[in-house]
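During the second year of the project, the team shifted from modelling isolated chains to modelling whole assemblies. The rationale, set out in the original proposal, was that interfaces cannot be judged from single-chain predictions alone. As a representative example for this report, we include one of the complexes processed in the last quarter. Its constituent sequences, exactly as entered into the pipeline, are reproduced here:
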Amino acid sequence: MTINKQKNENGLLISLEGRLDTTTSPALEQELKASLDGVDSLVLDFEKLDYISSAGLRVLLSAQKTMNKQGEMKIKNVNETILEIFEVTGFNDILTIE
Amino acid sequence: MADNNKNTVVYRLCGKIDSGNAPQIEQEIFTALAGRGDVLPVLDAEALEYISSAGLRIILRLKKSCGDVKITNANSDIYEILEMTGFTEIMQVEKAYRKVSVEGCDVVGEGQNGKVYRVDRDNVVKVYKNADALEDIKHEREMAKLALILGIPTAISYDVVKVGESYGSMFELLDARSFSNILAKEPERIDECVYEYVKILKKLHSTHVPEGKLPRLKERVVKAASYTKDQLPEGLGDKLMRMIEAIPETDTLIHGDCHTKNIVMTGEEVMLIDMDTLSVGHPIFEFMRMYNSYIGYSEYDPQVLEDFQGYPAETARVFWKKTLCAYFGTDDEDVINSIEEKIRCVSYAYLIDWSRRHKAAETERGRLTCELWKKRITELIPRLDSLDFEVNEATRDDPNELTLEAEKDNLTRVLEFLDRRLESCDLPPKAQMQLDLAVEEIFINIASYAYSPNKGKATVRVEVTGDPVTVTITFIDRGVPYDPLKKTDPDVTLSADDREIGGLGIFLAKKIMDDISYEYKNGQNILRLKKKI
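Output from the structure prediction step:
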């Protein structure tokens, strides 16, 4: 998985490419931990993300919890299969999906 | 400093010999030899700790000047140097054998040539019965090396020692415990032992051995049968010979004495020991030796088995039957009995000759045992047409199955295996992704919890059946019994702040797949996932 990061004042855009799974999600977790300080708008771009497993969902939930305290979080360009995973797990109600 | 004998001059080498003291030592040796005429210099290396090339050159010059030289009591380090430099080829070098006592030590294994004792936590010694065992030791070491190269888990001895008047070879075997010991003390672990035992048997029997490396066990059995045939009623002997000769030749490995004393658990690993009977041939010959060990020798008097293995004869019978079922992959009694009859027929052919070779009939028990074998084989031969059985099915590497350490790092290997297996099925990308997801969740769950905090293996089996295309994925592990289907589903209606992090994996797998079933059988967690495409 590739993580691309763009910082704009208090906004952070992270674009993910590849698979967010048990093997790769610790990298995203680390990245968020290091970058979320002072961020009030987090956008995750899933355009090039093909796959997500529960390990990835954990990281998203934890990011959502953090952002609930300091601002907002959005996920955009979610493909159909990943959207289905969000629906099955109720994440579509928790996350803001554009 | 020098002790003199009649035709030899013994010179003791001490401590370290390097370029610093070599000239002085050389002078001492030649002084000791001066004027003694034609003698054989013997260098006693008992107290020698180290020798550099400067020291080795002294020995060469000594050999040149006296025609020959002999080195005695070389410890293993010194011997290794002499071996590496080729000195052992050009002069007589005698090793110093460390003395080891086995008094009060547990017997962890036993084979035809000797007993294996555990001397401490990490080391075992195999003590050879034969007083002049150095050749046997060399042979066994070569066999063990060959087995190791062929991928069979075994131990190679690192030192030769003296145990009283006998020789022994030392092996490092961490926490080694034979299956006999486990079955005697923890009989409830029988299924686990059968599982590991069959796995190692299949590994042996699917390993091909280069021509000429190992003896053919069939030749020995044919030889035994040519004696046995004359002990049988008219006509039966010839039929027996024909059937044994018709057993197909194979180039696959046979341990040759693969009973529960010769398979040990060392920590996480299972190993075979006592490799001196390594041979090639049809697996029926392996089963023949196994049958002899578990039932044959003790068929008349079960006490013989208990005395040898340390567990009751009944345990041996159950272990044997379970092994056959697991090896041949069936619980069908008729199938197992038919295979067993073939094995028994070969066993008796071998045992009746064994009885002659070991003069077993000199005791009443031995005579009665042999009578029983003759009676049994006489009943069996008319019922059999062939002694071959289908082993290809049982031993081939199954392309639908992958067994590996249940560790998170192995996830990629599991997914690659799944993708490779499904490649030819041309599944839609979404279905493929969903199967990946279910496999990831279940495998990670096993890797995280099944053996925690220890380690263990997991097997993943992928089967595809047609119309409608259905993919069945089975996970098998031998960890703590755990039914993931009993886990309560997470409440997916809660808000982000109220939701617990985690606990979604199994839930996802359940949602994605059409059917999941769980059973705990023979010490294994078996989780079966199905999806119609």
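Chain B has four domains: 2-96, 107-172, 184-394, 401-532. Residues 1-6, 392-396 of chain B have pLDDT under 50 and may be disordered.
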